[in-house]
Amino acid sequence: MRDMKKSLSFSIYHLSFSVALLCSVALFTSCLKDDDNNDNEGLSQEQIHSCYLQMAGEHTGKLIYQKYEDYTNLNLINDSIDVTWTVDSDSIITVHNVPTSALGAQVQSNVLKTAIEEAGKTDMKVYYLPYNTSPVSFMVYPNPVKVNVFMSNATRTVTIGFATSSYSWGSYENSKMRMQLVLYGVYLDDSTYSYLTSQVPMVIEEI
Question: How far is CA 178 from the centre of its chain?
Fold first, then answer.
């Protein structure tokens, strides 16, 4: 299972993969069949609850992401912001007050990017399911984030979606939590056109 934890080198690595939902489900099912569970049926409810008890409560750390230095040569630079999150139950993590500027940092429209930045902050709900108990390791399934923005004298709705794949995972080891998320697309109103040209990785890491 360790090979699922594929670290990202932000300066040289861009995700360019296409994962259908069925493939993600198949991979996730495979991950659940870990070697601390000999019955090949994934973790028991007791084991999942034990993972939750280890992680429960509030955590503080950094959200690490990339943004464009400018729109002349589209150089990407690393940035980070302080964030807090809570492990609320054995299936839900809430990341609190995430600046929308981080979620829209690579949007390919100056007007939309500015509108997203001006939306302020939003919470992110992340569903998780452990597949390993020592160290605690889990798959993450972030809910889409919806924010209202003001553009062209009208209120519009932006939906920020996340990918589900082997690149979206979390761990808890030595009293430190880490999650890797992948932005899949940024959509305006009911359009299926994404304002991202590629999928965008970001990391939430406890300090």
Answer: 11
Q: pTM surpassing 0.85?
A: no
Whose CA is closest to 143, among 116, 121, 122, 166?
122
Structure tokens at 59: 């955590």
Taking residue 144's Cβ as centre, other Cβ atoms within 10 Å add up to 13
How far is Cα 24 from Cα 117, in angstroms, rounded to an integer?
31
The one-letter code for the residue type at 170 is G
Q: Which two three-digit tokens encode residue 44?
A: 């028991």
Q: Which of 146, 138, 151 is nearest to 186 (CA)?
A: 146
Cα separations in angstroms, 169 against 1, 40, 148, 154, 182:
11, 20, 28, 37, 10
Measuring CA to CA, which residue among 100, 107, 106 is closest to residue 83? 100
| Integer Cα distance of 144 and 22 in angstroms | 19
For the ranges 4-13, 17-26, 74-83, the maximum mean pLDDT occurs at 74-83
Q: Give the residue from 2, 55, 80 showing the smallest Cα distance to 174.
A: 55
Q: Which amino acid is at 100?
A: T
Give the whole-angstrom CA distance, residue 27 versus residue 37: 17
Extents of the domains making up the chain: 2-206
